[in-house]
Amino acid sequence: MIDPFDDIYFMKRALQEAEFAFEKNEVPVGAIVVMNNQIIARAHNLTETLNDVTAHAEMQAFTAAADFLGGKYLKNCTLYVTLEPCQMCAGASYWTQIGRIVYGASEEKRGFTALKTTLHPKTVVIGGVLEDECSKLLTRFFIEKRNLN
Fold first, then answer.
1. Is the Cβ–Cβ distance between 18 and 82 less than 8 Å?
2. What is the per-residue pLDDT across 48-96, written as a single tens digit (0 to 9) for each?
3. For 131-143, b where at least 16 C-beta lie within 10 A, e where not — what string?
């Protein structure tokens, strides 16, 4: 039997969050946190809106998930994020002890893999889920941004 709640399903939900960021003129990155096939947190970049360099989608999602669960550890959760986490967000994921990270587009210059950032040893990472869709949204954003300036 096919599981309707697979990584593609949840990455599509994260892409919806990225679209919300795009509409707000934020870098279009979306994130959700899932536990037992239930979305417990939704977020997108808010760095421009909040004038806060730490207001990445992942950080917003971690805070919302911890609030929902009433605790800071996300051991039995999965983070779905449309762009590979940066060093800051990967570091935060270490402290949350998140069980899985599933990301869409790779970030060759600032991503945690390029920077050799250490994740929690029990965290499982899967990259490239809906990579084309995630990359196209980011590319579209930056092309439009350049054309406006």
1. yes
2. 999 999 999 999 999 999 999 999 999 999 999 999 999 999 999 999 9
3. beebeebbeebee
Q: What is the sign of the dihedral through the CA atoms of 67, 14, 23 and 132? A: positive
User: Which tens digits make up the pLDDT trace of 112-124?
Assistant: 888 888 899 999 9
pTM score, two decimals? 0.94
Q: Which of 58, 84, 107, 133 is catalytic?
A: 58
Which tokens hold the place of 44?
Answer: 């997108």
- Look up 108 and say whether it is catalytic: no
Q: Which residues contact 132 (CB under 8 A, 6 or more apart)?
A: none
CA atoms of 141 and 11, how far apart (whole Å): 19
